[in-house]
Amino acid sequence: RFITRDFCPYKCIFCESPVLYAALMGKKSSGAVRIVDSEVTNRIIKAVTKKFPYIDVMIDDDNFMVYPQRARETLELIIEGKKNGEIRKDLQLQLRCRTDNIVNNPEFPKLFKQAGVRMLSMGSESYSQHELDSMMKQTTPETNLKAVKLLLEAGIDVAENYLIFTPHVTKDSFYENAGAIVRNIREFDVDGVATPFLSPIPKTPLWGDGNFEIVQEFPYKHLYPDKVMFRNEKSGYEYFGEEIKVPRTNLVLSHPEFVLVKDPLMREISMKSIQYLPKAIDRLKEIKPGARLSRSFDSLAQLMSASNLLFEQTKESRWYQLVEEIKGVVESQNSSPT
């Protein structure tokens, strides 16, 4: 596992890549700090796999396709190395990239397959346009789905990364996203990884100016007695986290762990769904004893927990139907453990 490009030029509000490396290098704007060219990448793969002939390789760039031409050169060198025997033919690769990179370069899935890419991880994030726009993702649900299909058609497994309770989630955007996640896991058997909340990273829009004020009227203290609620005037967001006392000093640091949802209903649902998640997991395990407790299973359990709470709160039939769909997906899963 190694990195060949340690930045991403996109401006998603939750990502540190556009700001972290520039800050480390004392720069005011984002830019490439390190790029390992295609020839060096190829030499690394040859050297490592020669010394350790049974391992595979993960190129863990935030976005392997940030420079499509360099990505193409790297893949072509790997393909050539396999043909001439310098790289073992059964070497498998794992990569990460954006969904629009795949759609805008439709020839790449074939190159991935020839190079030995077994699985590609994509930050789809959401299947709600409202959610994608609020995160400045610059993609669409249609782009996400098209990328999934292009990879599967080329014989490559897909891992999708989703965000569930973004700061601007509404019950309708949650439903759009949840329904598509369930569909992709059911119809395409994607490895769907759901993250409940966004974490505020310094120098991103979610962080503000770093001055966090404790909110005394924390309404969920009974659920999370060891946690506190923060507010940052600069960002306009509220947070959930801890106060950390520095040993042997009088210093207390604010540690916001994730950004709270703005919508009142969805904030309540998000806070309670984490508490009820173990019950949802147990219920799904009862439905399918021995079901694979995979990352997709965990994602489905998170969606089921929230959907149950939404049904209790709103009495809307769509949440009951979504819960039933989730149960059906789990019931149809293989029973062999992973």
Tell me about this structure:
α3 packs parallel to α5. The chain has helices spanning 17-24, 38-51, 68-83, 99-104, 108-115, 129-134, 141-153, 171-188, 264-287, 295-314, 317-332, and strands at residues 57-58, 93-97, 117-125, 157-165, 191-197, 213-215, 228-231, 238-245, 252-259. The two termini are 22 Å apart. By secondary structure, it is α/β, with parallel strands linked by helices. Helix content is 44%, strand content 16%. It has eleven helices and nine strands. A hairpin with a 6-residue loop joins β7 (228-231) and β8 (238-245). The longest helix is centred in the C-terminal third of the chain and has 24 residues, at 264-287.
Question: Brief overview, please?
Answer:
The chain is α/β, with parallel strands linked by helices. It contains eleven helices and nine strands. Helix 8 packs parallel to helix 11 and helix 9 packs across helix 10.
Q: Would you tell me the overall average pLDDT?
A: 91
Number of E-type strands: 9
| Largest sheet, spatial ordering of strands | 1-2-3-4-5
Strand content: 15-25%
| Unreliable sequence segments | none
Radius of gyration: 22 Å
* Percent of residues in helices: 40-55%
Major sheet: 5 strands, parallel
What order do the SSEs take from the amino end to the carboxyl end, as H and E? HHEHEHHEHHEHEEEEEHHH
Structural class: alpha/beta
**Coarse shape:** globular
Oligomerization status of the protein chains: single chain
Output the number of helix runs.
Answer: 11
C-alpha termini separation:
22 Å
